[in-house]
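Researcher: Predict the fold of DJ-1/PfpI/YhbO family deglycase/protease.
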Amino acid sequence: MGKKIAALVTDMVEEIELTDPAKAYEDAGHTIEIISEEANKEITGKNGDKIKADKGIDEVNPSDYDALLIPGGFSPDLLRINPKNGAFAKAFLQDDKPVFTICHGPQFLVETDLLKDREMTSFVSVRKDLENAGAIVKDEEVVVDNNLVTSRTPDDLPAFNRESLKLLES
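Model: Structure tokens for DJ-1/PfpI/YhbO family deglycase/protease follow.
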């Protein structure tokens, strides 16, 4: 039986970091819902692609999902503005549900206050933020720390998808 994955995004998301994992998850039999500020919001990606949100943050509950995807781009920084987004993500980490995040996405998880002693990677400009939040930062294509999968850039998507799918199958 497939898992239900929440993708938390807003404007300026790095499109490939959303669409490539989403395709991999769907191809494996899982479903993905795009969550943003409001349902049916048209999100404009970093490269101009238009993406429609399925649900708004006010109408979702972490218990309705099996995993969380946080793509990169500038979306993670914009997501930090609304504390409901951070609370949503925090619930996944607290409940040991899989969390998949790439590039600038790990920066958003600083909002959860749950990164101390977690092994992670990210885009180079985010690493100091992660260290300051107590994470153990590595420069590897993919880092898996229990339920948390992180990667650095779109070049790492094959490894990111592979490790994310392993967690979804367990």
